[in-house]
Amino acid sequence: MASNEELRKRKTYLQIAGFACSNCHQTSREDGTRTLLRCTRCRMSYYCSKSCQKADFSFHKQFCAAIEELSNLEEVWYSCNDKESEWNKRKIYHMQLLAAALDRDLTSYESNAWLNQPKCHVCFRTSRDSESRSALIPCTSCHVVFCCSNEHWEQHRSKHKSLCQTYQIMVQYHGTSETLWAPEEWDESLIYPPLPKDWSSYLKWRKAPQFNQLDALCRVITNSLSLPLTILSALERFYPRSQLRSFDELVIHLIGAGKYEVSALMSFEEIMHILPNIRTLQLILIGIELTSKTMGVSLQCCPRCTKADRKRIYSLHPISYHEYSASDDFITPQIVVGFNIGLNEEFWKPSVEFLIEKELPCIFTSYSKDEASQDAKMLKNLGAKIIVGAKENKWRSTMPLVEPQETDKFYYNNYYRTLLKGKRE
């Protein structure tokens, strides 16, 4: 799991593109300057002032020195021959060299910055690849898509025109704080289940502020609330209404958990608000990205839940789910959830076999239809009884995220879902 400092410092797309300060996030437009100051060593970090550069130095210096070392190795800056596949191979090669220079794996912050570094969207050259080291030319609207020349912009402009608005939404999101809004209203009318038909109906039902569903703030909210609502939509498929309403304690396993689940922990209180009979909600996060074991930590609840003596507890287990299932810490859950974990990888096979054998209700989400189909295929091969197979999730995040390994491709958290329980007959 990334540290709090790393999460706070993780670069936005505007910072990576050189249009926002790497320390305070202020854009060049907000600062009233035409250009920001660029770090002369790595040439990848930008600052609105010397004081911001100094404030960021302790966090930035190791990665900066590694980039400088890489920049001095002429042989590793071989031509990509205008091919995206070669550009991707070179990026990964460079990340391996950077990790060697740092004598450790790259952090999420560092990987994100390198994978999304500016390049020409036609020939895949960076400013470092140009003999003159000339700057790339940005789109004047989104500021995060570049070409190396006016001629290449002429080639790319028509394609970018159809995607520029999506890039602008993405940029706007990354300039917005991670709002974890969970309405304090309880479901007094006992409407759930089922959930409403879509996000608009849900926000109205939950007496949300007048969010515009297309605004960046609302998209940020769906990115975090997508987790509890995806779980609630699965619970209504696995349990009858009477049983859901009778739960005094709800135990949820979040497998393959990382920073996405940890940063959204507060939003899980929405499960308690929609199921107000729950006295204790226990969230058990299991995943190798987590850094330290933590047991039984209480999370603050809203005033009403606090007054009713309701509790929300989380635990962290930095191991594989298969290891956790064999440990003394294992607690049988009402549901097992894996958000965007790439279930079809061989790593997950022993964990899935355990889940099938124990007949635990499971929901897994994926970024795309293709990934979801691969997950479903793997589950079928293992004999799982699939309840919902690779179907679009209406509670997916509405916030587009750029795919760093494919030019002009976007993905969404929890876009597709697959539900299973037990063995196929």
Overall 3D form = globular
Spatial extent as radius of gyration: 23 Å
Reading off the top of the CATH hierarchy, the class of the largest domain is best stated as Alpha Beta
Proper CATH architecture of the largest domain: 3-Layer(aba) Sandwich
Work out the helix count. 16
Low-confidence stretches: none
Give the DSSP E fraction (strand runs of 2 or more residues): 15-25%
CATH fold call of the largest domain: Rossmann fold
- What can be said about the biggest beta sheet? 8 strands, mixed
| Number of domain modules | 2
Series of H and E elements: HHHEEHHHEEHHHHEHHEEHEHEHEHEEEE
> How far is the first residue's CA from the last residue's CA?
39 Å
Task: Supply the helix-strand structural class.
Answer: alpha/beta
Roughly what is the average pLDDT, rounded to an integer? Answer: 89
- Share of helical residues: 25-40%
> Could you tell me the number of beta strands?
14
Q: Strands of the biggest beta sheet: in what spatial order?
A: 7-8-6-5-9-10-14-11
